[in-house]
Design brief:
The chain contains eleven helices and 16 strands. The protein is α/β, with parallel strands linked by helices. It folds into two domains: 148 residues, Alpha-Beta Complex (Quinone Oxidoreductase, Chain A, domain 1), CATH 3.90.180.10; 140 residues, NAD(P)-binding Rossmann-like Domain (Rossmann fold), CATH 3.40.50.720. The strands form three sheets. Strands 3, 5, 6, 7, 8, 15 and 16 form a seven-stranded mixed sheet that branches. A six-stranded parallel sheet has the order 11-10-9-12-13-14, with helices on both faces. The protein is globular and about 60 Å long.
């Protein structure tokens, strides 16, 4: 609040200077940078904006965000390529990791390290490609001691989804001794982390990618062999020769149909993405003749018990050295351009966003 001339009259010069400094500090501290998405009269805009924290959406935990990331869904939202955002204006970012500043939620206190994945954040609730966020306490996962906030966002929703896929394969009896497993979209975020986890668990992994020049990278992560995605991306037979015991699929469409057609008896595929398309032009043949299982993986509204399990397993099963190979770090100002790159298939592995960099 501004002071009138009479309010200042009892203060000496040094005291006046101190009041001014405090006023400037408080005003500056209330501002933060974020990627703001707007749509006015049909005109879409994505930009880095300065926002006052009084504008933050409702939440019982205030978080000082340290790192965020860009997933495929973030790319769609920032490039306005799909109706991801359902409330305007919107701060982008479905993931965030940082430190609690204030909390009225009984589970969290000031200073706690936390992770946010999904729950409609960046879609209907202001997200974490920002220096500050207000979130609901029941959405948050404790930052594992094994990870820094940077590493947690190098994993992000893509890596956490990859872990959910691995857990689903295990649950359906796909163990290393059953045979090779396939990872589609292998050079992307989900695929890269899935390969690293599976190889670390002793699986023999085949990587499918449209970027064969990344074969050495995929083999460094643990892939035993690399195939061209074109082998799976066109219409195929309803049922084909048995090839893989299980698969992690981030692609969908004909690719997923062909993966199902080639699964071994009692095999399973964890489906988590749609890079090729939403359609599923498949046959029931492999389901009723080989008893295969198609497991849908949802990371957005996933129950807390499964989230905690996934993050605990990530802390145990994901080699930090491989995570480093997967990850590039960018600044908030670079994130908009990179969001377009991720949709164009130009991004290898994971992008961690230093929101304060």
């Amino acid at each position: 609040m501004l002071m009138s001339h009479s309010d200042w009259s009892f203060l000496k010069l040094p005291e006046i200077a101190l009041v001014l400094l405090k006023t400037v500090f408080v005003e500056e501290d209330s501002m933060f940078k974020a990627i703001l998405l707007t749509k006015t009269d049909g005109e879409f805009s994505a930009r880095v904006a300065d926002i006052d924290d009084t504008e933050l959406t409702e939440g019982d935990v205030s978080v000082r965000v340290e790192y965020s990331t860009i997933n495929y869904k973030d790319g769609l939202a920032i490039a306005n390529k799909a109706p991801i955002v359902r409330k305007w204006p919107m701060v982008a970012g479905i993931d965030g990791a940082g430190v609690v500043e204030q909390s009225s939620h009984p589970r969290w206190k000031k200073g706690d390290g936390v992770i946010l994945n999904g729950w409609g954040v960046g879609e209907t609730h202001w997200g974490c490609l920002a220096q500050k966020a207000k979130l609901k306490g029941e959405w948050l996962v404790p930052l594992p001691a094994a990870f820094t906030t940077k590493q947690a966002m190098a994993i992000g929703t893509a890596g956490y989804t990859a872990m959910l896929c691995v857990l689903a394969l295990e649950k359906h009896g796909v163990t290393p001794d059953k045979g090779e497993v396939l990872v589609t979209g292998a050079s992307g975020g989900v695929g890269s982390v899935a390969i690293a986890i599976l190889a670390g668990r002793g699986y023999t992994v085949t990587a499918s990618t449209g970027r064969l020049h990344e074969a050495d990278y995929l083999k460094e992560l643990g892939a035993s062999s690399v195939i061209d995605r074109r082998e799976l991306s066109s219409p195929g037979s309803p049922i084909a020769k048995e090839q893989w015991a299980g698969a992690v699929d981030a692609v969908g469409s004909h690719t997923l149909a062909n993966v199902c057609a080639r699964l071994k008896y009692r095999g399973a595929v964890a489906a988590c993405g749609l890079a090729q398309g939403l359609d599923f032009p498949a046959s029931v043949a492999p389901f009723i003749l080989r008893g295969i299982t198609l497991v849908g993986i949802d990371s957005v509204m996933c129950p807390m018990e499964s989230r905690l399990d996934a993050w605990q397993r990530l802390a145990k099963d994901l080699d930090p050295a491989k995570l480093d190979k997967i990850t590039s770090v960018i600044s908030l100002s670079e994130a908009i351009a990179k969001a377009h790159d991720i949709l164009a298939g130009k991004v290898r592995g994971r992008l961690a966003v230093d929101v304060n960099g």
